[in-house]
Design brief:
The protein is mainly alpha-helical. It contains 17 helices and no strands. Helix 3 crosses helix 4. The radius of gyration is 18 Å and the shape is globular. The two termini are about 25 Å apart.
């Protein structure tokens, strides 16, 4: 099913995949699951929750592309942080020159950067600051860290997450997501990748003496329970653990890019981020050609995204 997918098409699949998932979810954000059962999103729509035209991606994609752009020029955490501030103040890498739907933790952290805080000082550390704002943008890091030792991968994930989300819970979510995506990139089938990611991350965190109170929260992921959970047990709020769990659930319970992101969107609530995180995995796994081309051409800034894909691939391979 996935044979002969080039690394380049996995890069394109990941970047277009997260952006299109995001754009599909923007009109449905804040809608309840019950409402969407009767009024499901099936295609790129617009002018609902955020009054944006069809194909508009949100801060999720903009910040992921800020990270990808920075990596194109050689990874530097100060440059990543600078691009976040350009997005916040100058609408850099937005879909339509309009910044909307900014998370509180992300907003607070970027303002601290503007006040002179360094990237390793700007992130929110409170337990209540574990929204999904770093998870939604972390995927490009997969291609940069793919040949590094585990401790280096973890340290870079922690560094990038901590620009805005510095609590260990958000860092663990990002690290799990990156490790799972790495295994998918290396052409593991998704069931084997899920099992191996659980073991790898659980053992790594134990070796780092991460407190059990935090790692225990990830027990369902570490024991591969998520795919068999019923839908009513899956939450799709903006809490980082909910977003990661919902995205993994959608990815594991569907067999195509389209079905994965449509399922994610129609879980409701933080629909754009759930679909962005799930769409990144599905795009990477199934490849660019598995994404409906009508969606590729309808997404805002298609040519710019394609150009970014080319430059990003060259920088990471």
């Amino acid at each position: 099913m996935r044979s002969n997918i080039s690394v380049y098409d996995r890069v394109r699949g990941a970047l277009f995949g997260l952006a299109i998932g995001d754009a599909l979810g923007v009109p449905a954000e804040f809608q309840t699951r019950q409402f969407l059962k009767s009024n499901p999103i099936k295609d790129l729509e617009g002018y609902k929750s955020h009054n944006q035209p069809p194909g508009t991606f949100s801060d999720d994609t903009s910040l992921a592309f800020c990270l990808a752009e920075s990596i194109c020029n050689g990874y530097n955490i100060n440059d990543v942080a600078q691009r976040f501030t350009w997005w916040y103040r100058e609408a850099y890498w937005t879909a339509n020159g309009d910044v909307f739907d900014i998370g509180i933790t992300t907003s607070n952290s970027i303002r601290k950067l503007e006040q002179g805080y360094k990237p390793h000082e700007s992130g929110e550390c409170r337990e209540g600051s574990n929204g999904n704002g770093s998870l939604m943008r972390i995927l490009p890091l997969v291609f940069y860290v793919q040949n590094m030792p585990a401790i280096n991968r973890y340290n870079l994930v922690k560094e990038v997450s901590s620009i805005t989300h510095a609590h260990i819970r958000s860092v663990i979510a990002c690290f799990y997501y990156v490790e799972f995506a790495l295994l998918l990139l290396n052409e593991q089938n998704k069931e084997a990748a899920l099992e191996q990611a659980a073991t790898r991350v659980r053992e790594f965190l134990h070796a780092q003496s991460i407190e059990n109170a935090e790692t225990d929260l990830y027990s369902p992921l570490f024991h591969n329970e998520i795919p068999v959970w019923p839908e009513d047990k899956i939450h799709s709020s903006g809490y980082v653990l909910h977003t990661l769990t919902a995205a993994v659930w959608c990815f594991m319970n569907n067999n195509s890019y389209r079905d994965t992101v449509i399922n994610a969107v129609n879980l409701g609530n933080d629909s754009d981020t759930t679909a962005c995180v799930a769409g990144g995995l599905a795009g990477l796994y199934y490849g660019y050609n598995a994404i409906p081309q009508t969606w590729v051409t309808a997404i805002k800034r298609t040519n710019d995204i394609e150009d970014l894909c080319q430059r990003f691939y060259q920088a990471t391979n």
